[in-house]
Amino acid sequence: MPAEIDFCNAADLLPHVLSAARAHGDHLDVLVLDLTATSFMDSQGIRLINDVRRRLGPGAAVRLVARPEGITSRVLELTGIRRDVPVYDNLAEALAS
């Protein structure tokens, strides 16, 4: 995911994420969004995550990766999305879950 996710690019990211997910056909069980390079995210980033969750096929789960000390992790916590979507400190943990 990009360094910033906000009102300028969140809407454009949605078709790219969904296209990557659909490239796996109906066999997608887990989609991991790696936010470790994302240093800024506003409410549009949360909306993007929720839109992806709603549009994935049945049975497909979303996992997030975010640096624990980063602003992105704090936004995920403040908005409460951490209650609904597992957030991992690194990609290896997310893939192993």
Describe this structure in a few short sentences.
With 97 residues, the chain is of the alpha/beta class.
Care to describe what's here?
The protein has 97 residues and is α/β, with parallel strands linked by helices. Helices cover 42% and strands 16% of the residues. A three-stranded parallel beta sheet has the order 2-4-5. Strands 1-3 form a two-stranded parallel ribbon.
Features:
42% helix; two-stranded parallel sheet; 16% strand; 97 residues; alpha/beta; 5 strands; 3-stranded parallel beta sheet
Write the layout of secondary structure elements.
Blueprint: E1 4-5, H1 10-22, E2 30-34, E3 40-41, H2 43-55, E4 61-65, H3 71-79, E5 87-88, H4 91-96
Parallel strand pairs: 1-3, 2-4, 4-5
Helix pairs in contact: 1-2
- How many beta strands in the DSSP annotation? 5
Strand order of the biggest β-sheet: 2-4-5
Largest sheet: 3 strands, parallel
Secondary-structure element string: EHEEHEHEH
Described by its quaternary structure, the protein is single chain
